[in-house]
Each structure stands twice: as structure tokens, then as C-alpha cells.
Specification:
This is 1,5-anhydro-D-fructose reductase. With about 350 residues, this protein is an alpha/beta fold. The protein has helices spanning about 10-20, 35-40, 70, 90-100, 115-125, 140-150, 180, 185, 190-200, 305-320, 325-345, and strands at about 1-5, 25-30, 65, 80, 100-105, 130-135, 155-165, 205-215, 215-225, 230-240, 245-255, 260-265, 275-285, 290, 350. It binds NADPH dihydro-nicotinamide-adenine-dinucleotide phosphate (NDP) and 1,5-anhydro-D-fructose (NHF).
Length: about 350
């Protein structure tokens, strides 16, 4: 049984805790939070841009730490799961790696590329697994998309367009400070850069247009450049949507033999807020048939987090790094974000290096 300790009980800490309830061969045995109410199981202050608000949790079988260092010192923790604000990822991940713990840290790996490299290298040196919780490939529709591309089941991928947009959120202390967030061009858009790299490889160049704020990207449109000259991949991401569009993501994929469409998001505010599937996952064949493929993973709001954590747990058991959670791939996705920012600033195509 792999014993997981979660550090930071906010939107993601709760998503991981909830998702972990369905893990096979692992469970959360400890949490670290500074908040006495949360330690007492009152998680009603927690909210995010998908899933329900927090409620009352029974923590009677979970060890509780106020200071994360005590969780790191606990010999009965196998996997440390860091769900803290991005600006803390480097310090706490390095502390965890130095404590000899296998470590999973929320995305983005870091804001700073040097910090990202430091984390990847420290884990290599310490001989522990270092994984980044890039959850998008575990969302059933996106998992389906990756599988379609990799299997060539519908022929070669010719073109793809991705979308990830949101209104600026309000629930987290750190969300308005772009220095801490890396702007939406990192915080939000890194999901697409990671997925696109997983699907098609890291692009060699990017051409981007967009809007900056506080020196970071607020909204971006990017065309990704590959050795294959006819592969057309693009994405739009950012945090400038109207308040009633809390979050939306989707894609269109054009294969030789089929087109695949998907789009969904959280729309409305307050009690009117709902998850709207604007374009149910639809596979359209050359013969004109419309199919709604059966997806793996279940309907629970945190199902993707269960799959993500299961991949991390399986990695500890097999000793093999899970590709979708690879620290190096998460670092490469961050490199793309910086190339995009430079492309916006200069108006030129920028190599990803
Ligand atoms: N994969 C995904 O889809 C998403 C990923 N994220 C990523 O997850 C990370 C956390 O974001 P999110 O959960 O939304 O943020 P929240 O603000 O909701 O939660 C972060 C938690 O970290 C703890 N914390 C905050 N500041 C400090 C501090 N100075 N010292 C110690 N602990 C602190 C708090 O927990 P406590 O009160 O328990 O101490 C807080 O609740 C970010 O890196 C973000 O990019 C975010 C949203 C979605
Ligand atoms: O996918 C996401 C949804 O929005 C969040 C912002 O609050 C991001 O941090 C996140 O990665």
C-alpha cells in the first residue's frame, strides 16, 4: 500500500484528496495544512472553477500536520503530493526530494526555467521519482484524443486546434499576482503546451500573438511548428473571458479518416453556475457517421485526478516514470510558454530551447 501525504489543502489539495479515495493500492494517510478548521475536517471554505465546494471531511484515519516539514519527516509516507501555490513548488519539492521522498507536484512545475531544471536534476541525483501533476492527459476526452493520435486509428493527424479560456478567478490568494502565477500564459496554457508535446512531440518553433499583463502573457494564440511542414497545430488560451465564462476547454482534431470535436466548460455565476457541454465528444467519419465514443474514467468530477494519481502510484510500484507526469516534459512545456512570450514581444517565430 502506497501511503500518500498531501501538502496544501486548497482547490487542488481537495481534488487530489477526493480523487485518491478511488485509488487501487494507495491511500492518503496524511495531510499538511496551516488551517485549523481544515485540520478539523471543515473544508467548506474551499472552491475552484470546476467541481463542488468543499464540505465536511472525516479525517479520523488521516495524520494531520500543521507544518509540512513534519509530513516530510514522517517515515510512513511514500509519496508526497504538493498542492501548494506555484511560487512554493521549487522550495517544497526540493525539500521533499532531499527528504528522500517520491514527489508529485502540481502544475506548472515552476515559473522559472532554472527552478524547473533544478527540480528535475535534484530528483535524478536523489534517485526518487519526480512527477508533475499535468492532469489534462487524464481527462477522458483528452486521453481519447492522445490515443487517437498515437494509434493512427483514424489515419495521420493533419491538423488540430485547442482552446482553454477562463475569466480571471477570485478564490485563491495568489491568483492576481502575475509574478507568482506566471500569468495565464503559464498557469493555464501550460496544460495545452504539455498535451500538444505529449501528442505530437515538443514543437521546434512557435509563432504567437497575444496580450500581456505585468510582464506575463494574459491571452495567447499560438501556431506550433514541427519538422512535418503540413502538420497544422494551434491553440488559444487565456484569462480574459467574461465573468460568466469561468472555464472552458475543447479541441478539434482533423485526421485523414475522421474529425473529432469536443468542448465543455463552467458557465454562469453563483447558483446559476453549471458545467455545460457545448460540443459533446463527437467522432465524425468520412462516411458521415457521428459517433460518441465510450470513454474511460467515469463521471466523478475528480475522475481525472484519480487516474493521474493512479499513474503516479503505478510508477512507484514499477519504478518507471509515467510519460504524462514526466518532470522533464513538464519543464519542456514551460520552455514553450517562454518562447511564446518572446514571440508576442518580438512578432517573430521563436525556437523552443
Ligand atoms: N491541475 C489543475 O487543473 C489545477 C492546478 N492548479 C495548480 O495547483 C496549485 C494550487 O492551486 P489551488 O489549489 O488552486 O490554490 P489554492 O489557493 O486553492 O490552494 C493552495 C493551498 O496552499 C496553501 N498555501 C497557500 N499559501 C501558502 C503559504 N504561504 N504557505 C503554506 N501553504 C500555503 C493553502 O493551503 P492550507 O490552507 O491547507 O495551508 C492553500 O489553500 C497551483 O500550482 C495551481 O497552478 C490549480 C487549479 C487547477
Ligand atoms: O486548469 C486550471 C483551471 O484554472 C486554474 C486557475 O485557477 C488553473 O490553475 C488550472 O490549471
Amino acid at each position: 500500500m502506497i501511503r500518500i501525504g498531501i501538502i496544501g489543502i486548497g482547490f487542488m489539495g481537495m481534488a487530489h484528496y477526493e480523487g485518491a479515495k478511488k485509488l487501487k493500492g494507495a491511500k492518503v494517510t496524511a495531510i499538511a495544512t496551516r488551517d485549523s478548521k481544515k485540520l478539523a475536517g471543515d473544508w467548506s471554505s474551499i472552491e475552484g472553477n470546476f467541481g463542488p465546494r468543499g464540505g465536511q471531511e472525516d479525517l479520523s484515519k488521516v495524520k494531520q500536520y500543521k507544518d509540512y516539514h513534519d509530513l516530510l519527516a514522517d517515515p510512513e509516507i511514500d509519496l508526497v503530493d504538493i498542492c501548494l501555490p506555484t511560487e512554493m513548488h521549487e522550495k517544497v519539492a526540493l525539500d521533499s526530494i532531499r527528504a528522500g521522498k517520491h514527489t508529485l507536484v502540481e502544475k506548472p512545475i515552476a515559473i522559472d526555467l532554472k527552478a524547473a531544471n533544478k527540480m528535475v536534476n535534484a530528483a535524478k541525483k536523489a534517485g526518487v521519482q519526480f512527477m508533475v501533476a499535468q492532469v489534462l492527459p487524464f481527462f477522458p476526452e483528452f486521453q481519447f484524443a492522445v490515443e487517437c493520435v498515437r494509434s493512427n486509428k483514424y489515419g495521420k493527424l493533419l491538423a488540430a486546434h485547442f482552446r482553454r479560456v477562463m475569466a480571471p478567478p477570485k478564490w485563491s490568494e495568489n491568483i492576481e499576482d502575475f509574478q507568482k502565477l506566471g500569468g495565464w500564459g503559464i498557469d493555464l496554457h501550460i496544460h495545452d503546451n504539455h498535451l500538444i508535446s505529449l501528442m505530437c512531440g515538443v514543437p521546434r518553433k512557435v509563432t504567437s500573438r497575444g496580450i500581456e499583463n505585468q510582464g506575463y502573457v494574459n491571452h495567447v494564440h499560438t501556431v506550433y511548428d514541427y519538422d512535418e511542414p503540413n502538420l497544422a497545430i494551434s491553440c488559444v488560451s487565456g484569462g480574459i473571458a467574461a465573468r460568466g465564462l469561468e472555464f472552458a476547454h475543447g479541441y478539434e482534431l482533423y485526421f485523414e479518416d475522421a474529425t473529432v470535436l469536443f468542448g465543455a466548460g463552467t458557465m454562469g455565476v453563483g447558483k446559476k453556475k453549471e458545467w455545460v457541454v457545448s460540443q459533446p465528444l463527437t467522432l465524425i467519419t468520412q462516411k458521415g457517421r457521428l459517433q460518441h465514443p465510450k470513454l474511460k474514467g467515469g463521471d466523478a468530477w475528480c475522475a481525472a485526478f484519480t487516474l493521474e494519481l493512479q499513474a503516479a502510484v503505478n510508477a512507484l510500484e514499477s519504478g518507471e516514470e509515467p510519460e504524462a507526469l514526466s518532470g522533464a516534459l513538464a519543464r519542456d512545456a514551460l520552455k514553450i510558454c517562454y518562447a511564446e512570450a518572446k514571440s508576442i514581444q518580438t512578432g517573430r517565430s521563436i525556437p523552443v530551447k
